[in-house]
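lol forgot to send this yesterday, sorry. struct tokens for the thing we talked abt
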């Protein structure tokens, strides 16, 4: 839902449905009046949110932070109408086998699940933001002084190396790491993301690398998810080999010419 005229969109009070279409968690700020600023976390998931259930309409209407998120290029936040919002959760309910007493997709149950997940992510982010951790040293000593117990003689310097060594996980898409963390063995079963939901979230990530897929194969928990990652890895290998064969053939033709 592309918004070109914010004045028209916010002319009358309405429910504001938003969807995160980036691959990162978003943080919004709203002025609640009397100098009080309230933050709202939009998880890195495609699950839409009825923002007016959490933030008053007028605060959303007057938030320049919110409008900037909608206007960014490439876009990170998308507005949905009520029909799109409901249709999304009807499909989610169907994929998760959530049905009501009439045997129809239980849209409300799917919405409740998404809201509970959003709340857990928000609470976790809050805890991490207030946790004080001792910063890691910017370097490590690799060779001490030549004196007793590594003491330095006058004018002698220790040999050091930077601590910023790139870990294996830093080569993996942060979104992939986050999703795999949601299905760790340590996560209680009732809180663990379902296989269908995990697969849907992974498939929504553009351009997964071989490292990403190998991480899913190792930490995706569910057999169906790991099987999918294996199939996608094979596709990448075949595509890579096809490119190499084409390059070799072009090189051979050039040599022959």
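and heres what i got for the seq, position by position
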């Amino acid at each position: 839902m592309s918004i070109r005229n914010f004045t028209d969109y916010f002319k009358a009070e309405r429910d504001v449905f938003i969807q995160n279409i980036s691959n990162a968690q978003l943080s919004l700020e709203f002025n609640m009046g009397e100098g009080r600023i309230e933050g709202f976390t939009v998880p890195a998931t495609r699950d839409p949110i009825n923002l007016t259930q959490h933030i008053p309409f007028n605060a959303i209407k007057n938030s320049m932070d919110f409008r900037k998120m909608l206007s960014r290029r490439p876009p990170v936040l998308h507005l949905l109408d009520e029909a799109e919002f409901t249709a999304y959760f009807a499909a989610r309910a169907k994929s998760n086998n959530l049905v009501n007493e009439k045997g129809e997709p239980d849209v409300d149950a799917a919405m409740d699940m998404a809201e509970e997940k959003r709340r857990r992510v928000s609470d976790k982010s809050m805890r991490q933001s207030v946790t004080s951790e001792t910063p890691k040293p910017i370097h490590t000593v690799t060779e001490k002084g030549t004196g007793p117990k590594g003491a330095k003689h006058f004018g002698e310097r220790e040999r050091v190396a930077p601590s910023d060594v790139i870990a294996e996980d830093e080569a993996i898409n942060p979104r992939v790491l986050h999703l795999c963390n949601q299905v760790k063995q340590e996560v209680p079963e009732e809180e663990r993301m379902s296989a269908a939901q995990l697969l849907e979230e992974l498939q929504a990530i553009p351009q997964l690398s071989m490292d990403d897929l190998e991480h899913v194969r190792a930490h995706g928990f569910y057999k169906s998810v790991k099987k999918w990652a294996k199939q996608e890895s094979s596709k990448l290998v075949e595509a890579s080999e096809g490119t190499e064969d084409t390059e070799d053939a072009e090189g051979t033709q050039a040599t022959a010419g």
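The two ends are 54 Å apart (CA to CA). anyway ping me if u want another try
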